[in-house]
Specification:
heterodimer; A: mainly alpha; B: mainly alpha
Chain lengths: 273, 285
């Protein structure tokens, strides 16, 4: 009886695994296949003929291209600012000890707890009260506050492992504070900084909820453009866009895999060698 | 080393950004939520007397409906996600083949990182009322235009994000349970199922609870998924905030909804942190 139940549980487990993989991958695979559809309309799956027409349409739509341009601009700017703040903040936390340091480190994660819609709405209200109307400036402000926790977090994590005596040795051997930072701490923290930048760029390129509040009629991001197209009519141009974004995600993941190894990111726990 | 003037200077940019772009905006929302709304005006009038009117609106029937929808669907999502993620995480954590383990972790991380836009579009293209699977689903007797079906597509959209995340966090929980205890239970005659019920699940309970709570906050603050997949019929509190801004420009009411959402998230996150802290405190015993 017991063994019979165990067999049943094993079969259910297999069904669950296959079901979850299908549920996660199925819709994405359908989207990628349909983005290559040669028909002019949304027909049944699978597409009978393949063509790149939706990709051509994607890259010839001025509305999308404009969104892509401001998205790249805002994401690059926000990533650089966040990474710079991450570096100086982590350096201060690495160098100095002061009361409340752990609380401060926790507070830096604050924006992750605040729902994105609240951040967007709050920024909109605040920026219009202080008189900032320019869409690009508002978007940059919003994207900095949602990406900076990731930059600080990853840079901080990479400086924790650096022994303080390395810096002190450099100073003792006659290096200036700046040289000690540039030649010792910075190279050792580099993977953390790069990881923070990858996260920041990905988060910024992907954001919808914060950006929606901060766009104006001429400055909007790519996801905002695509999502309003999606709500207006169901067209396969967005499937092409989605497939391209999926490609970017895969490149980012492969990059992280070669930088750190995804397996190590999760860890193996204490009961495994 | 003690904090010097240079140290303060290094911390200044972060302090400035967090003050200007997070603290002051949230205080502005708090202030705005206590102002009177004058129809036809964008934003509140300064120097009007403070009022709780915007919060009292939430006792209204329609608002309670939005709150109920948000909690009901986020709760369903958190329950299903935790129940599905646990066996998946167990399978990966106790997986002997390194290749299978890596393949699953790679899949889960890719799915977690997937753009929200790609996610909602794909779910809509697959399960939507004009989607690829629509003919099959109709054959199976689903009414694709019913509210219940729309609710389930919202649940599916949220699960698509949350299952990978919950599985990845639970892998850590399961890896920190000593496998010897499970083996001992089996050696003493328990079936695998029985050993899981009386050993693995109780030991993983704090991890399961914090995964449930984290999933719940993600569900409650979700915006894009209910906005697109809900088709204006399934409306979360976050969608109310946006429509107060985009449709009626009733900023005081949108602010009150924002404050409410922020409070809910804070309460649940603190509960999750407490659970995690207690689990860590007890791990040594």
């Amino acid at each position: 009886m017991k063994r019979y139940l165990d067999d049943l549980a094993a079969i259910l487990m297999l069904v669950l695994l296959v079901g979850v993989v299908l549920f996660l991958l199925g819709p994405v695979v359908i989207t990628m296949a349909m983005s290559l559809d040669a028909r002019k309309y949304l027909g049944p799956f699978p597409p009978p003929d393949l063509s790149l027409q939706w990709y051509k349409k994607f890259f010839s739509e001025p509305y999308i291209l404009k969104g892509l341009r401001s998205s790249l601009l805002v994401a690059t700017f926000a990533t650089l600012v966040s990474a710079a703040i991450g570096v100086v903040t982590a350096e201060a936390m690495h160098r100095y000890d002061f009361p409340g340091k752990n609380i401060l480190a926790a507070l830096f994660l604050g924006p992750l707890i605040v729902p994105a819609v609240v951040i967007g709405f709050a920024l909109l209200l605040y920026l219009s009260r202080v008189g900032i109307q320019n869409g690009l400036v508002r978007l940059a402000a919003g994207h900095i506050i949602i990406t900076v926790p990731y930059a600080i977090r990853t840079t901080l994590a990479s400086t924790i492992g650096i022994s303080k005596s390395l810096r002190e040795a450099a100073l003792g051997l006659g290096a200036t504070e700046w040289q000690a930072f540039w030649d010792v701490t910075f190279p050792l923290a580099r993977t953390g900084i790069v990881a923070g930048m990858v996260f920041a760029f990905a988060i910024s390129m992907d954001d919808v909820a914060v950006s929606l509040f901060l766009t104006d009629s001429t400055n909007y991001t790519l996801p905002v453009a695509l999502i309003s197209m999606m709500r207006a009519n169901f067209d396969l141009t967005i499937a092409a866009g989605a497939a391209l974004m999926m490609g970017v995600t895969i490149i980012v993941i492969l990059g992280l895999e070669s930088l750190f190894g995804l397996d190590r990111l999760v860890g193996t726990g204490i009961y495994r060698s | 080393m003690r904090l010097t003037r240079l140290g303060l200077l290094l911390l200044a940019p972060a302090a400035l950004v967090y003050t200007l772009l997070l603290t002051l905006p949230i205080l502005t929302v708090l202030d705005e939520s206590l102002r009177e709304y004058i129809p036809g005006r964008i934003g509140s009038t300064p120097d009007t007397p403070l009022t709780f009117q915007n919060y009292l609106e939430f006792a209204d029937h329609a608002y309670l409906g939005f709150l109920w929808t948000t909690f009901k669907l986020a709760g369903i999502v958190a329950l299903i996600a935790t129940a599905i993620a646990f066996p998946i995480a167990h399978f990966i954590a106790r997986q002997r083949s390194s290749a299978i383990r890596r393949a699953f972790i790679g899949l889960l991380i890719t799915m977690m990182f997937l753009s929200a836009l790609v996610r909602v579009y794909s779910i809509q293209l697959a399960f939507g009322s004009v989607g690829i699977l629509a003919p099959v689903l109709k054959q199976l007797g689903f009414n694709l235009n019913s509210r219940t079906y729309v609710e389930w597509t919202v649940v599916a959209g949220l699960l698509h994000f949350v299952i990978p995340m919950a599985s990845l966090t639970l892998i850590g929980t399961i890896q920190n349970i000593n496998p010897r205890v499970f083996e001992a239970a089996q050696a003493l005659g328990a079936s695998r199922l029985r050993a899981h019920m009386s050993i693995t699940i109780p030991l993983a309970a704090p991890g399961l609870l914090s995964s449930f709570l984290i999933t719940l906050t993600i569900g409650i603050s979700a915006f894009v998924v209910p906005w697109v997949l809900g088709k204006g019929r399934v409306i979360f509190v976050s969608n109310v905030v946006y429509s107060r801004f985009s449709e009626v420009a009733n900023y005081p009411s949108g602010s009150a909804a924002s404050v409410l959402m922020l409070m809910l998230s804070l309460v649940i996150v603190f509960a999750a942190l407490r659970v995690a802290a207690r689990a860590q405190g007890g791990a040594g015993n």
